[in-house]
Specification:
Blueprint (H helix, E strand, L loop, with lengths): L1 H16 L11 H5 L1 H18 L12 H15 L11 H5 L4
Length: 99
């Protein structure tokens, strides 16, 4: 579980920190990760594991899991240089009050 969460966090942080510039001929992080199918697989497995983790699962009570997955996938796709558009809410208000 911890490795999956760390992988997702690293993916999002480093992907979002990307300037979008890459040396000529180098594949984007999105493509190097395996594109949308790979991102979907990681998010699907991670959401399942998160939903069973006693440390964090209560944060997700009443959350539309399908919408959560969709937005996680969009965010990871955009953050790694993929062709997606993020349509979710901004991170600050979504996480406000969650400590």
């Amino acid at each position: 579980m911890r490795k999956s969460l760390l992988a997702i966090c690293a993916l999002l942080v480093f992907g979002c920190a990307s300037t979008g510039h890459k040396p000529a001929g180098e594949k984007s992080l999105y493509l190097r990760l395996g594109g949308l199918p790979a991102i979907k697989a990681v998010i699907d497995l991670s959401v399942v594991r998160i939903s069973k983790d006693d440390r964090v699962k209560d944060y997700f009570k009443g959350v539309d899991v399908d919408a959560l997955k969709k937005h996680f996938i969009q965010l990871a796709c955009v953050g790694t240089g993929g062709p997606c558009t993020y349509a979710g809410r901004s991170m600050k208000p979504v996480h406000e009050g969650l400590n």
